[in-house]
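User: Can you predict the 3D structure for this chain?
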Amino acid sequence: ILRLDKILKSLLDYAKVKEKSKIETDLNEIIRNSLILLRTQAIKQDIQIETELSPITPKILLDENEMKQVILNLSLNAFQAMPNGGTLKISTSHQTVNRVLGLLVSFVDNGEGILPENLSKINTLFFTTKSDGTGLGLPMSQKIVREHGGSITISSETGLGTSVNVFLPVDR
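Assistant: Here is the predicted structure, written as structure tokens:
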């Protein structure tokens, strides 16, 4: 019942249009704070988290809680892809996409990777390959990033790992 309640709340959050509380925020600080929440899980699973955060990043307009949710969702997906331990590298850098200046957050793991036939399905609501998954984490993250004017791209090789890139534009 608790699991169904959690799924229902996540689904309602996904469908809900809510007022954003965007403030100028240091994305690196959001990442650091989010990683504190993941430390115990990483130790338990023998996962090393490496960060390479750009020392000079402009503050950008973000809903801090939603961006934490994205970071946690993507990190936990990487953790689940490394059941026998591994490394998750998270980095930030400046990037220009279609002449739009922004910040790129990369999540690179050396886990199992995503099967080619599943790569095109992973953004589909309720699609999951996990026995205890809901199929809401990645679609919710996609929605949040899109609402911030950004995008998520994913590449993966079975047995070698997955790379997830989140692009967020810098508001001027």
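The helical segments are 2-15, 27-44, 64-80, 116-119, 137-147. Residues 27-44 form the longest helix (18 residues).
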